[in-house]
Amino acid sequence: MNKIYGLMLVPALLLSACDEPTPAADATEMQFPSVVTPAPVAAAPAPVTAKPKPKPVVRKICADCGVISSIRAVKIEGEGTGMGAVSGAAAGGVVGNQFGKGDGKTVMTAVGVLAGAVGGHYAEKKIREETIYRLTVAMEDGSTRTVDRKELNGIGAGMKVKVAGDSVSLRD
To answer: Which of 160, 90, 149, 164 is nearest to 120 (CA)?
Structure first.
């Protein structure tokens, strides 16, 4: 039996030439590491194709387009041409001449002329005063423009407009 055992041992030693034997509890028997069979390989997952991202919708920005964010009525002081002062002085002189006697009458006429001239000047400025409308427009490019108009002509806050220089027009 030793011969058979020895014959069986030779092929086992040849097969496990790379592995070192592990001594068994019984010194007459040698144990060899068992042959490890590789685990089955899973099939590779199907390749994932990335969906192309949709192109973002790019809207052209109109540099002259915007929305009216506010409208304010602003009074612009009129300019005196001198006609108010002249006519006021004449009227003041006539009224001043009605008071006093002698030198008092001359003083009152002079005071009437000065007061009439000053009053006439301010009256002319007030008569020539204008009310304009100051429109603040929030532009599509993020900036803000201010436009002055004499009349609104149906334009109101929140409306879409196009600004060209100092003019404003409604847009679709």
So the answer is: 90
Q: Six-digit token pair at 89?
A: 């002085």
**Closest by CA position to 157, among listed 73, 67, 24:** 67
pTM: 0.49
**Structure tokens given for 168:** 């404003």
Tokens of 31: 């144990």
User: How is residue 94 written in tokens?
Assistant: 């006539």
Alpha carbon distance, N-terminus to C-terminus of the chain: 109
Place of tokens 């600004």: 163
Q: Summarize the confidence of residues 131-142 as an average pLDDT.
A: 92
Q: Coil, helix or strand for 139? A: strand
Q: Which of 63, 79, 76 is nearest to 134 (CA)?
A: 76
Residue type present at position 2? N
